[in-house]
User: Fold this.
Amino acid sequence: MSVAARRRPPLRIRVSSQVTRMDGPLLVAAAGLSAIGVLLVWSSTRLWNGAESSAFASRHLMNIAIGVLLLAAATLIDVRWLRTLTPVFYLVSMLGLVLVLTPLGGTANGSNSWIVVGGFQLQPSEFAKPALVLMMAMLLSRTRENAGKPRIPDLLFALGAAVLPMGLVMMQPDLGTTLVLIATTAGLLVLAGIRKLWIFLLIAVSVSGAAAVWFLNLLEPYQVARFTAFLDPSTDPRGVGYNSTQSLIAVGSGELFGKGLFHGGQTTGRFVPEQHTDFVFTVAGEELGFIGAVTIVALLGVILLRGLKIARESGDRFCALVAGGVVCWFGFQTFINVGMTIGVMPITGLPLPFVSYGGTATFANMIAIGLLQAMHIRDRTFT
Assistant:
């Protein structure tokens, strides 16, 4: 046995050492949101098809348990190995996005976003979020020594890595996830310190592309209808404006302290569609009131602030960009989800991180927390 091997601490001691260096507030916030999510999913699905049921809550608990294992795996991985495995993770996630466009893909709510095998469903676009963060962080951190800004080849490779998943997700079509990928990409480019001229050029290209998509009628009819309902829900309150109207009623009826868990009339009557997934925040607003809704937002804020702290204090460019990318992802998705339930953003079908029911989304969220912990532990190990 070599001297290095003899001096290497046992695995149990190394794992214990890493656990003690984890970011406590980050874990508590994620655990608190997950616990609230289980209660809200249980409340919104306990009367399913006219009968008492705890099936959704049980499955959500199982998804969280699997997510915790993924969180632990992401936390314990060495950052050097993470850099090496990033291209593999990225390519596998791209393969998943391609497979949904084959006969293996399943359709729900107008979007062909799932892989369905033997009754098991997987949504590859959720894994594309952490994959994009890792890939762009790897590419944008490949600067020369003492170089503060990415080089043009690195920028072009990073943009190429971002455009591929965006295009594949839009083919499903899934506008909400595409917007998250765009926001995450934009945030990473800014955090990487690209030149202002490039930022202005990218903004101009993005605005031109969005205008072309709109005027060339490249959006699906239901997506256009959602934007129309956002501008004026009263134009079709029983059609495309129904979700927005009922969502506002549910959130507003909870007032300060809410009607109590399991006692929401809008929730029990299932007036709000998809209230255990995309519109779970309406359940919080009605049953837990303003206090409960603010608690959820505050816990999500803790995650964002701890992520920013990890990014700011990181001595490694790759680690800082990974943490910053996760913050951009969670921050934008939270803003869109909460915003669409209170009528300040159009409905795009995005889940609320850690709270909404969902298997793949829960796994991706937990992996992201694990990545933040890995970046945090890495910096505390080498300081």
Q: What stands out?
A: The chain has one domain: 23-86+130-381. The chain has a mean pLDDT of 85. The chain has 15 helices and five strands. The longest strand covers residues 111-117.
